[in-house]
Amino acid sequence: MSVDTTTERLAAFFNNSPDAILVVQREGVIRRANARVEEIFGYAPEELEGELIEVLVPDAAEVDHPEKREAYFESAESRPMGAGLELRAEHRDGTTFPVDVSLSPIQTDGETEVIAAVRDRSERERLQQKYRTVMQTAPDATFVIDATTGEIIEVNEAATELLDAPAATLVGAHVTSLHPSEESQRYRELFHAHPEGEQKTIARFENGDDVLVEPTDGDHVPVEISAQHLELQGQEVVVAMFRDVSERRRYERDLYHQIDRLERLAEVLSHDLRNPLNVAEGNLELAAETGDTSRLNEVERAHDRMRDIIEDALTMVRGGSEVESVEPLELSGIAWKCWRNVATAHASLSVDANGLVYADDTRATHLFENLFRNAVEHGGDDVTVTVGVFEGGFYVADDGPGIPPEQRKSVTESGWTTSSTGSGLGLSIVADIAAAHDWTFTVTESASGGARFEFADVRTAPYDDAYTQDADKERSLER
Prior knowledge:
Largest sheet: 6 strands, antiparallel
Strand content: 15-25%
Shape: rod-shaped
Domain PAC: 83-133
CATH architecture of the largest domain: 2-Layer Sandwich
InterPro entries: HATPase_C_sf (IPR036890), HATPase_dom (IPR003594), His_kinase_dom (IPR005467), HisK_dim/P_dom (IPR003661), HisK_dim/P_sf (IPR036097), PAC (IPR001610), PAS (IPR000014), PAS-assoc_C (IPR000700)
Radius of gyration: 41 Å
CATH class of the largest domain: Alpha Beta
Catalytic activity: ATP + protein L-histidine = ADP + protein N-phospho-L-histidine
Number of strands: 20
CATH superfamily of the largest domain: Histidine kinase-like ATPase, C-terminal domain
Distance between the termini: 116 Å
Pfam family, one: HisKA
Number of domains: 4
Number of helices: 15
Organism: Halobacterium bonnevillei
């Protein structure tokens, strides 16, 4: 390549560069400037030529620019100017703006001159500020993650709130640290499976498992992650937005639960009510044909059974999957109230250990009524029912025939009953009420060999023995 050709190309680069290019002598005099300086600084090139470079430096004297310029010429080398500093330049109108400056020494007629390439960073800074504003004000937890290493580079305030951790703890950690520690490999594979340049949203794994994060308190929170692999400021990153979907999951569970209840209601209406209805219709026909009014007793019993089934079905359908509030209920008080509401014949109730149970009053009433009705239906008219509070739970037990171990898991299923008069919904309703309170419900054997229905993970306050005896005396007088 000829010298003339090289010179032409250098001249073309100088004149058409997107950066403002200035050739500066050791004394700071601008010897030459390209056309781009007018767009960036507001000066025509010829206006700058012969001026000191300090005319473009804000507060040049205050920042000791002449001294720094002289120091550079002492050991001139190609490098960015003010590495790590926020450099600013001054426009002709006096305004200042952010710039990047690259310096390269050249030899001209034995003298050292410097080519300064100046790039206006105003637009980039504006975009960065916009990016940071959007990120910090985003309602979702936002993470900027190195696409190669998985290291978290930046987080917003919503992220610190979701993880209950300061930004300093999150930044620098691996992205898998956001998720359950026992499944780190699973989440590592999920992160690195993100296609470059694509936006992807995921809330569940292929097998249906929720995508979870693990805040510092150890609880797992289901999230929906919307992520995009892109280049940001010259670095390959994944920008991921985490949205807490706990409420959505609760709504879905409630919806599925309600659908299940409606399906069970349809089953009750189509099957369980048919038998007593047929009994009532048959006996009515016989009474009409024969004049035997004793048949009406069977009709009445069939109606009573239908009424019980309908009431149980309505209780099952109306109860939600959660309770909004609980209150302290004295076990002996609610137990005796419910006992009086149930046809207990010659059965008896005993309060072995009194105390407070924190529960929803209406739903606790349904729970005890169904358990008492179940005890009488399966244990007989003279069954003895015992209730008691212990630390963290309560129980209802009886001295009836009990429930065989192989049937204890199925007793809460809709329709399970060994009684010809039962609706088969009572224990299913009890299980629903326990689940709504987040109680653990188990069926075991009582001390007398009967059934014991135990509820754990309950907020309780057992009374001491002396208080229990006094309370029992007062209640015996009331009855």
